[in-house]
Structures are given as structure tokens and as C-alpha cells.
Design brief:
single chain, alpha/beta, TIM Barrel, four-stranded parallel beta sheet, 11 strands, binds iron/sulfur cluster, 4Fe-4S, iron, Aldolase_TIM, S-adenosyl-L-methionine, iron ion binding
């Protein structure tokens, strides 16, 4: 029996695969086989042919950043004439537009801006919750939280507690990249270690928030480092349960390849088949994470659709304004109606969910969104 078959058999028997098993899969080209196994494992967890999506919006509230990641085409250094911080009213207006189309999630994410005091975040969260109590703030990645911790002089737990009290509900997994310090030192030396990222997630869980995890591959990392990334996420998720944190931990895992255009890091663009292989392996390895999200913002809707047969059960968010990714040369934009169309074309039933993955509305055949975002270029 081939090594790959042995590992897939093990996974299909419901046994956990090891770091070494994961490397066997990563080094194999048997994408179809892995896809079939991942699809089977996904169907056991999600037997209904439903693919969820969220109606939400990204708000890149500032592009000023002093982390200077080599792969980032979005940031401007402090003092740059092209740096911005969105006025509060503009942020509130964008949220109003989201609410107007039935959206419920805001992903505020920006550069790590050293000029914004901790009070800025508390104030904007309070203003948002005051005006839009039904909105879920799924905002600020670990690097931003770590900067807030430094600026506030508080501990990590205190920082997150204050943010939670002001209205922060959930943390996105941005900045996970590869959770191993050899790669992190090469691509984003100032962004903190992988343990800083993970400690932030655990502190969020301790304070009652749920989070997601991401993985960006294609920085020249080894297969062992990719496998380690997944193992570390899986172990942290186990810990969340074992220690009884008041949170379900990571609710979803999202992976995409590094986008090299307009960045200082020269790498070949990764192939779509590699993406399908990665999402399949994510599903097989991460047996304690319920949802795998398609990354149509980077891969385009066609590959997004295909990923729904490779272990993926969620089509992500409408996420208008994905400036960080689009600044690096990726400009796919879809609105609600297109998401419904793509999910149906893949033979599945679309359902709107909230940030906690509760289903809010199933779109039965022939049903459409009453209101929609206007497409932007
Ligand atoms: S990826 Fe984020 S942290 Fe890194 S330079 Fe860009 S905005 Fe800053």
C-alpha cells in the first residue's frame, strides 16, 4: 500500500494523522485522492449539502504600519503622505451600508499603527456598538492586538478584556502566515513570533471570544513547516477544550497562497492545484476545527467553487474592500448574488451564517438576496 493511501485510510477510520503523516500528504501529488477523503470527512461533519457564507465587510481603517512585512503591498510607513486613518463617520457609514444589505459582521483590520492610542480602539468600538448593537465585531488581528498591549501598558488578557467590554466579539486569524519562526523572521521580522500570535488567540478565548485561524503558504517554507503550522493550530484547539476556556476556540481555518505581485518578495505564483491540495490536507489534519473556508478573494470564484469538493464547507464573507490582498494584485470581487450563484453551480445550497457559524437563512432554489452590495472595481 502506498504511503498516501495508508495515511488517508487512517484519517477515514477516524484516527488522527501525525505530523509525519501530514508531511507525506504535503509531499504527494495525489490531489484527487486527498480531495475525495477530505470531502468524505467534511460530509460526516456537515451531512447537509449546505455551504455557508457571511454578509460582512472589511474595513481597512488605517494603512499606516511599522511592521514592514516584506510581502505586503498595502502598508505605508508612519509619516508617509499616503498614510491614512479613516474618520469615525466614514467607518460608521460603511457599517450602515453593510447593515442595509442584511450584513452582520465587520472585519476591521489595518496596519499596525503606532500613532493610534489604545483609547482610539475602545472609542470606535463603543461608537459602533452604540449605533449598531446587532453588528458582530470580528476585528483586529494578533499583530494589532500586540501593539495595543504595548501602547496601553496592560497585560495581554487585560487588553483583550477591555476590548471585549468595549464591543470586540471575535478575532480574525490574520497574520498567521506560517506559524514557525524561521519563516516569520524571513518575511515579517517585526511581526512577533508564532507564540505571540497563538498567545493572543488563547487570551481571546480566555476572555470569551471566538477566533479563526489562517495559513499563508508559498514563502519558501518547508513541508515540515507547513505541517507544523497545522499541528500547532490543532494542539491549541485541543488545549482550549481541555482547559475549559469559555470559547469554542478556532471556529474556522482559512488558507491561501502568498500573492507575490507588487511586493518585495520574489516568488513564483502558486498553482490552483496546490491550493486544492492544501485545503484537502487542512480538512484531514485539522479534525477539531469545524469549518474550512474558501478563499475566493485570492483564488477567484472558479477555484473557490472547486474547493467545495475538497473539504471546504464555507464560502467566507462578502468582504468588500479587501485592500491588503488587492494591493498585491488580486482583484476578484463578488457580491451576495454571485456567491449564491457560485454555491448553486457547485451543486450546493447556500445559507447565510453569522460569525459563530449559526445559520441565519437558507436560500432555497429560486430565492435571491433582496438587497445587495454594488460591485466595485
Ligand atoms: S501585512 Fe499587516 S502587519 Fe504586515 S506590513 Fe502589511 S499591514 Fe503591516
Amino acid at each position: 500500500m502506498q504511503q498516501v493511501d495508508r495515511v488517508l485510510d487512517k484519517a477515514l477510520q477516524g484516527e488522527r494523522i501525525s505530523l509525519e503523516d501530514c508531511i507525506v500528504l504535503l509531499e504527494s501529488d495525489e490531489i484527487e485522492k486527498m480531495g475525495r477523503a477530505a470531502d468524505e470527512i467534511m460530509r460526516r461533519r456537515h451531512p447537509e449539502p449546505i455551504v455557508t457564507f457571511n454578509i460582512g465587510r472589511n474595513i481597512n481603517y488605517t494603512n499606516v504600519c511599522d511592521v514592514y512585512c516584506r510581502f505586503c503591498a498595502f502598508y505605508r510607513p508612519p509619516g508617509s503622505k499616503e498614510g491614512y486613518v479613516l474618520p469615525d463617520e466614514t467607518i460608521l457609514q460603511k457599517i450602515q451600508e453593510t447593515v442595509d444589505v442584511g450584513g452582520d459582521e465587520i472585519l476591521m483590520q489595518g496596519g499596525v499603527n503606532p500613532d493610534l492610542p489604545f483609547e482610539y480602539y475602545l472609542n470606535i468600538l463603543r461608537k459602533i456598538k452604540d449605533r449598531f448593537p446587532g453588528i458582530t465585531m470580528h476585528s483586529f488581528s494578533p499583530a494589532e492586538i500586540q501593539k495595543m498591549k504595548v501602547l496601553s501598558g496592560l497585560s495581554l488578557d487585560e487588553t483583550l478584556r477591555e476590548l471585549h467590554e468595549a464591543g470586540l466579539d471575535s478575532l480574525p486569524g490574520g497574520g498567521g502566515e506560517i506559524l514557525d519562526d524561521r519563516t516569520r523572521r524571513k518575511i515579517s521580522r517585526l511581526k512577533g513570533s508564532w507564540t505571540d500570535w497563538m498567545d493572543t488567540m488563547k487570551a481571546a478565548w480566555r476572555n470569551g471570544m471566538n477566533t479563526t485561524a489562517t495559513m499563508v503558504y508559498g514563502f519558501g517554507e518547508s513541508m515540515e513547516e507547513r505541517a507544523l503550522h497545522m499541528l500547532r493550530v490543532r494542539e491549541a484547539q485541543d488545549e482550549c477544550k481541555e482547559l475549559g476556556y469559555p470559547s469554542p476556540g478556532f471556529l474556522a481555518f482559512i488558507t491561501w497562497p502568498f500573492q507575490p505581485d507588487n511586493t518585495n518578495l520574489k516568488r513564483e505564483k502558486s498553482k490552483p492545484e496546490e491550493y486544492l491540495k492544501m485545503v484537502a490536507i487542512n480538512r484531514i489534519m485539522l479534525d477539531n476545527i469545524p469549518n474550512m473556508q474558501a478563499s475566493w478573494v485570492t483564488m477567484g470564484p472558479e477555484i473557490g467553487k472547486q474547493s467545495l469538493s475538497y473539504g471546504v464547507n464555507d464560502f467566507g464573507s462578502t468582504m468588500l474592500e479587501e485592500n491588503v490582498v488587492s494591493a498585491a494584485g488580486t482583484t476578484h470581487k463578488v457580491n451576495i448574488e454571485l456567491i449564491l450563484q457560485y454555491i448553486r453551480e457547485a451543486g450546493k445550497i447556500p445559507a447565510q451564517r453569522n460569525t459563530r457559524y449559526d445559520i441565519l437563512r437558507v436560500f432555497h432554489e429560486g430565492e435571491h438576496a433582496e438587497r445587495d452590495f454594488v460591485m466595485q472595481n
